[in-house]
Predict the structure.
Amino acid sequence: MKKCKITVLKTTFDAELAAEYGAEGLKACPMHTAGQVYYADYAKPEGLCDEAWKAIYQYVFALAHGAGAGTFYYGDWIRKPGVAICSCNDGLRPVIFKIEATDEEATIDYEPIER
């Protein structure tokens, strides 16, 4: 299993939808800013939004296990092997992430319980 690099590409804000559905004073996501970098393998990196992790972890897991050596989804999504571009599930202010496979081996930083 390899580690994956997760980069925040940008934060967005849909003013039209926020005006209709958002809470008063809603702004772009306060959790992330463009350029932030995280590394992940089997677990959510510290500081990454829980909801964002839920939306992107399957791509991290797939890339960490060698998927994407070709391209995802029959080559009609991302042209660069080993990369996925994903967003969190916030429909009013989604954050866009780039996930890249690395050559760095993942390590388990806990002692497994034997039963």
